[in-house]
Amino acid sequence: MAKILIVDDAKFMRLTLSNILKKAQYEIVGEAETGLEAIQLYRELQPDLVTLDITMPEMSGLEAMREIRKEFPSAKIIMCSAMGQQKMIVEAIESGAKDFIVKPFDESRVLDAVERVLN
Question: How far is it, in rounded angstroms, from Cα 84 to Cα 5?
Answer without folding.
Answer: 25
